Amino acid sequence: MNKINLPQAAKLTSPNPVSLVCTQKPDGLTNLATVSWWTYLSFNPNMIAFAMAKTSYSGEMVQNSRKVILTIPGAELSEAAMGCGSTTGRNTDKVAKFDIELAEVEGSSIKAPVHSRVAIVCGLKEFYETGDHYLYICDVEQVYGNEAEEALFAWNGYSQVRPAK
């Protein structure tokens, strides 16, 4: 084995899961941020975790409202997922910019993309500083799924987003 850095390791461990963190902005609009690291923490009680950069506007929204929906985007959203990961919602309406169709989600005032394989409605339990990111630990309130949607994955160190085929 050769000594490598962590970004190189990310390429070697592809594919990685891709998710969209859905939050509600103060004006009521939905903001979407692409996140490539999330995990199940517990099934009793139901809990998940995800990591976001400290500078993330969506992270601010999660901290302020303590509500979030984590979705697994469908294949139709591959370009939008890349765009949502490289654009800030602080001064951009990503839903309009990337032409993402949203749907109401029962039990939440936050909307989620129609083309989602899974939507996990959560309340923020706590968050921790982890270097240049925060780790958000969430209690799962509701889970919705659509097997007809094909899940997206990140490839080559997050340089591509596409289904795992």
Automatic annotation (TrEMBL):
<dbReference type="Pfam" id="PF01613">
    <property type="entry name" value="Flavin_Reduct"/>
</dbReference>
<dbReference type="GO" id="GO:0016646">
    <property type="term" value="F:oxidoreductase activity, acting on the CH-NH group of donors, NAD or NADP as acceptor"/>
</dbReference>
<feature type="domain" description="Flavin reductase like">
    <location>
        <begin position="12"/>
        <end position="160"/>
    </location>
</feature>
<protein>
    <submittedName>
        <fullName>Flavin reductase</fullName>
    </submittedName>
</protein>
<comment type="similarity">
    <text>Belongs to the flavoredoxin family.</text>
</comment>
<dbReference type="InterPro" id="IPR002563">
    <property type="entry name" value="Flavin_Rdtase-like_dom"/>
</dbReference>
<dbReference type="InterPro" id="IPR052174">
    <property type="entry name" value="Flavoredoxin"/>
</dbReference>
<dbReference type="InterPro" id="IPR012349">
    <property type="entry name" value="Split_barrel_FMN-bd"/>
</dbReference>
<dbReference type="GO" id="GO:0010181">
    <property type="term" value="F:FMN binding"/>
</dbReference>
<keyword id="KW-0285">Flavoprotein</keyword>
